[in-house]
Write a structure and sequence with these properties.
single chain, alpha+beta, six-stranded antiparallel sheet, five-stranded antiparallel sheet, 22% helix
Length: 196
Amino acid sequence: MLKENEPHWFVMRIRNSSLSRLKTLMDLMGNDDDIDETYAPMRFIKVSPTKMDFVPYLVNYIFVHSSLERLKRAKSSHEDYEPLRFVMHPSFDEKLAKRSEALYISEKRMDDFKRVTAEENEKVVFLDNMNYACKPSQEVQITEGPFAGVVGRIKRIRGNRGIVIPIGKEMAVAIMDVPRGYMRLLTEEETKNIER
């Protein structure tokens, strides 16, 4: 259950997003005392035969590190944040009553996501089929190579073995062709600790 005064990584959707709006929001939030950090995975694309441009993979999403309390205060006091919407997901309270709360990601999951998406790598793929990417599967930790320490779910993607890092049911990124010897299965207790 989400504690409103503790900092978390929140997934936020930007209504009517564009590259300029995303950059403006990131700049504004970078100077806001209520926001600790923002992140949007970026990549280079060829825009002409001689020019490359740095653009986000996901124009309509931004990750914001703050407490829910401070983030709500920032949204209510800055009209420029009006396009930002919390991504909601189902949750259960102490009495197991279903309710909806803002989607947040554990520090470990977000650190892994940032590490995997921080630089261009031909082995890193953003997944389109979220129904498939979010299906339960065994959690593993990569033990060797450039992504050593990253935790994800093992899946077959287009016939190849991949390690999928899901971000709620909104998005997922996969590291392709990780050798079987570079993986360690996690225990149920280790898996629970990653989500905290």
